[in-house]
Write a structure and sequence with these properties.
CATH topology: Collagenase (Catalytic Domain)
Order of helices and strands: EHEHEEHHH
Distance between the termini: 21 Å
CATH architecture: 3-Layer(aba) Sandwich
Structural class: alpha/beta
Number of domains: 1
Strand order of the largest sheet: 1-2-4-3
Number of helices: 5
Organism: Thermoanaerobaculum aquaticum
Function: Single strand-specific metallo-endoribonuclease involved in late-stage 70S ribosome quality control and in maturation of the 3' terminus of the 16S rRNA.
EC number: 3.1.-.-
Number of strands: 4
Largest sheet: 4 strands, mixed
Main location: cytoplasm
CATH superfamily: Metalloproteases ("zincins"), catalytic domain
Pfam family, one: YbeY
CATH class: Alpha Beta
Length: about 140
């Protein structure tokens, strides 16, 4: 099943060594556990300014946030299914990692799991705890 899933990671600035591969692996595992069988997820790692622009445009909130998810599930002309996009603010993630006492890499993985679940249709604001439970399981298994 993993051969049918792909996570494309794009860094707005310089990539952190080794983190891209880790994010791809965590992203694929999260997508699998969320029930995705095929497709590609695009991940953008950006600064707070870019995240603020995205948050303002799509959610009408004029401030940066840690992660945004944009489900798509569109079949592209190539036949590939574009599952959606996840944007993660590196600056916000770094602040959250420091506050939590863990690495930036771990925080990025946590945010990617959260975003991937949203792309797959989970919604912690609407469900009865299913997303939170799966997220906790994935944190334990993958991190």
């Amino acid at each position: 099943m993993a051969g049918k899933l792909k996570v494309a990671v794009r860094w707005q600035g310089r990539a952190l060594p080794g983190v891209t591969q880790r994010l791809r692996a965590v992203g694929i595992a999260a997508l699998q556990r969320a029930g995705a069988e095929e497709g590609e997820l695009s991940v953008l790692l950006c600064d707070d300014r870019t995240m603020e622009l995205l948050n303002r445009h799509f959610r009408h909130k004029p401030k940066p946030t840690d992660v945004l998810s944009f489900p798509a599930h569109d079949r592209l002309p190539t036949g590939t299914v574009h599952l959606g996009d996840v944007a993660i603010s590196l600056e916000t993630a770094a602040r959250q990692a420091e506050a939590a006492g863990h690495s930036l890499e771990r925080e990025l993985c946590l945010l990617l799991i959260h975003g991937a679940l949203h792309v797959c249709g989970f919604d912690h604001e609407q469900d009865q705890g299913e997303m939170e439970a799966l997220e906790a399981q994935l944190r334990e298994e993958l991190l």
